[in-house]
Write a structure and sequence with these properties.
The complex is a heterodimer of chains A (about 425) and B (about 425). Chain A has about 425 residues and is an all-alpha fold. In chain A, about 80% of the residues lie in helices and about 0% in strands. Chain B is α+β, with helices and mostly antiparallel strands. In chain B, α5 packs antiparallel against α6 and α9 crosses α11. The chains are: A mainly alpha (about 425), B alpha+beta (about 425).
Chain lengths: ~425, ~425
């Protein structure tokens, strides 16, 4: 009691915030995983600053979507898959889980492609590093020693910060940068649309929604403390997208101006050359590897968990493999399949990452529509249903993504 | 066999063959019975959207292959729900329930109905893959496949009497479930609470007695213990701590913020609090941290009959949960010898016990590391080892084998999802 009175209130508030900080900052930082860095690099180097306005729009979209997921987790205490199953029955759930599985499989493939790209840049064959990375990830997660390594990987991810520093070092035309950030531009070209979808799909992800809701529900956040979680979501989304924007600025200012459109890790790493010179490739690989391993540890596990939750199969690492065959089967299956895809001889790594993220965006509306129906259901959410403005923004986002997908499908005929 | 999924959304026809509406839900009554009867069908009429229509079960002539009534539509009375019915599709289908036979949380894929006499009853809950495929309209395909593989295809139907539905918003029904759930072993209870979502778990725990909850908590991992206690009224939390073994209670309090643990200790009964406090002094992973202070002890020098009689009236002996050994002490509570319960019971009532007493027992100090205690227990084949103050020679407590090997074989449940990031 005495101790409590000695700590000033403002300090208590900060300590409380730090203690509750977490999922928001994380999902947002995970925007800058390997496929994220690849996507933003390709977008920035191919289209210059033209993608900045999109990132502004996506930031708003991510804020809205992640906040809904966090709110559902806090109000219901349940996972997304759980709620979908209880409200929509088996058929809808089967379809939603199929989409989630597909999107997450694509993203896991992209993570291992990131490992391959990063290590091949240093001259080590992917046939050695990718299986090794898979074994490492599986071993860490199943043996439960992941907690200790996680912090190391998070520190490696800080390498993405070098984009922010480089961007300032190369002195881009800031006036032009700001102008592009508020001027929408669009093009019917297939490559451009794919890049738009990938940029959306790498920032607002199906697994991000599922992960956010699960971690808020797991923490047992009550609505009384919800504003702190909301702040976490806001700060996280904003921060992740600031870094994304700087990757675009950086690659536009260094590569786009020289007419280099990134297709390989070699080229992407050159964006960091003004800062690190010869060491750019090491810096680039560090960031890529940290983010890839981090995401590759979480993704297969949270996917297997969500699918098993939806269908009521035994799940969780506390179960032995004989008791939870679906859970471990899915987990191992996703990793093995991802590794095999990346090891196909001659498969181009950067395009894989881009396509997987476009696929994410194409599948996202399925989950978004279900989430929107849940979050507006008074029997699920009580008084915490969406406000009108939240609905308008979220539906606009959903429709926009669907429209872009339609345009993509039509674009071969348009040109 | 008839399943609710075959009734859901089906057209209902009256005695003249006129459509009445689609079946939106099935109400059952007497939920605590083994075969609860269907009380009414809920129709969501096509035309009027101003409310559901309830058809009493007495007017239903058959549910399958088509739902038909035995009266014309306008002669059908309306059923008035009495409030204790359960809506099967709304409240049970697709939800999680506890399978009390299998002792786990499962999801309801379908519900089995059967005609008993002249009424339909709920008989079981389908939690298997067959129910899933039926809902997807793929049951036939699955059946063909299993025939092709030459295997018989088991249904995953659990009898209704073996399940406990969970409705956090429905305290009345939760009590029925509670009666079925509390009889499970504490370790399974802990696992079930861990599997349930936060709110449902909390609602279920509300119905538990302090003793049941204390037992379940002892089997739960530290994070769960902390989460449960910190969301609880301090008075109840203190009551639960009193019910727990002092060593477990001390471990839990050590994990709580100091302010909270002080508050809880002050709310506990003085005697229990003092015992827990004495344990809090020692590090968590030492013999002092895992020992229990509730164990059978008696003055040395008694004859077999007298000793047994003494134990029957000793409070510490009554609190001893296992009593593998009886510890013999002098007036200053210094350990003088140990006798196993077996030898004590087998000895003639008036025999001098000296030949059976181990006068130089293996002991540990409260600061002996837990691994060392486990090693000693294994090496000397002990079921419990006494903890003795190295300076005064006083007997402080005992470490039982299960607590000693906890480090080697952790029994605590890991978090369901490891907390990433």
């Amino acid at each position: 009691m005495k101790q409590g009175q000695r700590i000033p209130t403002w300090l208590q508030r900060i300590l409380f915030y730090v203690s509750i900080l977490g999922p928001g900052l994380i999902t947002a930082s995970a925007d800058n995983d390997a496929p994220g860095i690849a996507t933003y690099s390709m977008a920035g180097s191919t289209y210059g600053y033209r993608f900045l306005w999109l990132i502004v729009v996506i930031t708003v979209g991510e804020l809205i979507v992640q906040e809904m997921a966090a709110r559902m987790g806090a109000v219901t205490g349940k996972g997304t898959a759980d709620l979908i199953r209880e409200r929509f029955g088996v058929r809808v759930t089967a379809f939603a889980m199929f989409c989630l599985l597909l999107a997450n499989l694509g993203t896991t493939i992209a993570q291992f492609a990131g490992v391959a790209a990063g290590t091949e840049l240093l001259g080590v064959s992917r046939y050695i590093t990718v299986p090794l990375a898979a074994l490492l990830v599986g071993f860490l997660v199943l043996r439960g020693s992941y907690k200790h390594v996680e912090k190391v990987l998070l520190v490696l991810c800080l390498a993405a910060l070098s984009y922010v520093i480089t961007a300032f070092a190369v002195r881009p035309p800031w006036g032009e940068v700001l102008r592009q950030a508020v001027t929408p531009s669009f093009s019917g070209d297939t490559g451009y649309i794919l890049a738009v979808l990938a940029t959306i799909g790498t920032t607002i992800t199906p697994w991000g929604i599922v992960y956010m809701q699960a971690s808020v529900a797991d923490k047992g956040v009550e609505m009384a403390d919800y504003r702190y979680t909301r702040m976490d979501v806001m700060v996280g989304a904003a921060w992740g997208n600031v870094v994304s924007a700087f990757i675009v600025i950086c690659t536009a200012a260094t590569l786009f101006v020289h007419g280099i459109s990134v297709e390989t890790a070699e080229q992407a790493a050159m964006a960091l050359a003004p800062l690190a010179g010869e060491a750019a490739r090491y810096l680039f690989t560090t960031g890529l590897l940290g983010a890839s391993l981090l995401a590759a540890s979480v993704l297969p596990l949270s996917t297997a968990y969500a699918v098993c939750e939806a269908f009521g199969w035994e799940r969780g690492l506390d179960q032995r493999s004989r008791e939870a065959p679906f859970f471990y089967g899915l987990y191992v299956g996703i990793i093995v399949l991802s590794v095999l895809v990346v090891l196909i001889p001659g498969i181009p790594l950067f395009p894989i990452m881009l396509f997987s993220q476009s696929l994410n965006a194409i599948l996202l509306p399925v989950l978004l529509v279900l989430v929107l129906r849940l979050v507006n259901n008074r029997r699920v959410m009580g008084e915490w249903v969406n406000r009108r403005w939240q609905n308008i923004l979220a539906w606009t986002l959903t429709i926009l993504i669907s429209l872009v997908t339609v345009v993509l499908l039509l674009s071969p005929f348009l040109n | 066999m008839l399943y609710v999924s075959q009734v859901q959304n089906r057209q209902v026809w009256d005695a003249w063959g006129n459509p009445v509406g689609r079946c939106a839900d099935v109400l059952i009554g007497a939920v605590d019975r083994n075969f609860p009867p269907v009380k009414a069908l809920v129709l969501r009429g096509d035309a009027d959207k101003n409310g559901d229509r309830y058809i009493p079960a007495s007017c239903v002539s058959s549910l399958y292959p088509s739902i038909t009534l035995n009266v014309p539509q306008d002669k059908c009375p309306s059923y008035t729900p009495s409030g204790d019915e359960l809506r099967l599709i709304d409240r049970v289908l697709d939800r999680q329930i506890v399978d009390t036979e299998g002792r786990r949380v499962v999801r309801v894929n379908d519900l089995q109905l059967a005609r008993v006499g002249d009424q339909y009853c709920l008989t079981g809950v389908d939690v298997g893959g067959r129910g899933l495929l039926r809902r997807l309209g793929l049951e036939g395909l699955g059946q063909a496949l299993s025939r092709l593989l030459g295997r018989s295809w088991k249904t995953g139907v659990i009898p209704w009497e073996d399940v406990a539905p969970l409705h956090q918003e429905d305290p009345l029904r939760l009590r029925v479930s509670h009666d079925r759930i509390v009889q499970l072993p504490p370790a399974d209870l802990a696992a079930i609470l861990n599997d349930l979502d936060h709110h449902t778990g909390a609602a279920l725990m509300e119905t538990f007695s302090n003793e049941t909850l204390a037992d379940a908590l002892e089997e739960s991992p530290a994070e769960v213990q902390v989460a449960v206690l910190s969301h609880m009224e301090p008075e109840r939390a203190a009551d639960i701590l009193e019910e727990m073994d002092p060593d477990e209670a001390a471990d839990l309090l050590a994990d709580l913020p100091e302010q909270t643990s002080e508050q809880l200790l002050s709310l506990m009964e003085d005697e229990e609090a003092a015992e827990v406090r004495s344990l809090l002094v020692y590090p968590e992973d030492s013999a002092g941290g895992i020992m229990t202070t509730e164990f059978a002890h008696a003055p040395i020098g008694l004859r077999a009959g007298e000793l047994i009689d003494y134990l029957r009236h000793s409070e510490d002996a009554i609190d001893d949960e296992v009593m593998y050994y009886v510890y013999l002490v002098d007036e200053d509570h210094r350990l003088r010898g140990v006798i196993s319960l077996r030898d004590l019971v087998m000895a003639p009532p008036d025999a001098d016990l000296t030949p059976w007493i181990d006068l130089d027992p293996v002991t540990v100090t409260p600061y002996t590391p837990q691994e060392e205690v486990a090693y000693i227990v294994a090496k000397y084949d002990l079921l419990a080892v006494p903890v003795v103050d190295p300076e005064t020679g006083k007997l402080l407590g005992i470490v039982t084998v299960d607590d000693a090997v906890d480090t080697v074989l952790p029994t605590a449940w890991k978090k369901r999802l490891p907390r990433f990031f």
